[in-house]
Amino acid sequence: MTDIDLLPSEIEEDLRDSIRSLLESKSDSAFVASLYDDPDTDTSALDAAWAEELGLAALLVPEELDGAGATISEAAVVSEEIGRAVAPVRFFSSAVVATTLAVRLGATELVERLAAGEAFAAVACPATSATLDSGVTVVESGEDAVVNGTVPGVIEAAGADELIVVSGSGDDTIVASVAAADAKAEAFLTLDQSRRLADVTFADAPARVLGRGAQAADAVRAATVIGRTILAAEQYGVAQRSFDLALDYIKERRQFGRTIGSYQAIKHRMADLWLAVSQAGAAVTYAARVASAWQAGEETIEEAELCSLVAGSYASTVAVNAAEEALQMHGGNGMTWEFPLHLYLKRAKADELILGHAAAQRRQLAPLIDITLD
């Protein structure tokens, strides 16, 4: 593989400007905080803006399927900005994980609907699971199937139009799609109300088989690797914004006749935090670049998987630490609703559990780099 350039491309910077501008106008911190008072706040205008107007729903769809044909690095930039704004959008669940499954299984009709922003999909697996396995029963008959079982804590299942179910592993893998109207999704109160969870129950739900066997297993692995990489980018965005908020505050807040940022102890803590956030950014960018190279056929999925585990486990830890440190820098003010810090801490803590905790990701990583665990 050619040398990796960690500097952003012009396309990535343009994309960053577009998504940041959109989120600043349609999803500021007050709008996100309102979701905690009323979880049923209408987000359809925001959904239409990012998915249709900016075309981000089609970002990872190949051009031959009328998509944008973007790289994973470009998708990571979008996710980074979503993290900076803790925006309540279905980009990760629908435009990344579900769309990757649909594209790799050749589910053209579903891909077209998702890419056009006409429908949103969720993968019916527990949010805290390191895999996409739904753990439900799928009985197939040709291209049709019947699904039974309950999946706890599915990301953004409520309000989704399609629920994608993964059953089994290896050559026994089946991926099927269930219309949301044929399942029951019960949303519940969660720490991060900007990304809601729901328990999903399938009772003899009719499904359409999207893929089976080795092809399905490969698609699930690809969606997991890409999803983990994109999630790490979001965690980096959360960490960046938390650091920026803390920096702005300590430069303004005065105590004993001087700004608190002038105290040496605060300087040292901020320097340590800046270093950690910068390192997370480098790990995420490298992982996204390697994943893009794999996407272009210039790198192996094994290398992309390894890098996604490094970036995911590190960015996850740094995001939580950055949000906690930012809150500490704000003193008592950080615990109030007048400041948006709680939104970042909640997103960081919730993201920490998606696709497996950082500790679980490090356990997955260990054998890939020849480390033997007791």
TrEMBL record:
Residue stretches making up the Acyl-CoA dehydrogenase/oxidase C-terminal domain: 223-366
Flavoprotein in keyword set: yes
A Pfam short name: Acyl-CoA_dh_1
Segments forming domain Acyl-CoA dehydrogenase/oxidase N-terminal: 10-110
Keyword Oxidoreductase appears in the UniProt entry: yes
Family, as annotated: Belongs to the acyl-CoA dehydrogenase family.
The protein's name in its UniProt record: Alkylation response protein AidB-like acyl-CoA dehydrogenase
Organism: Enteractinococcus fodinae
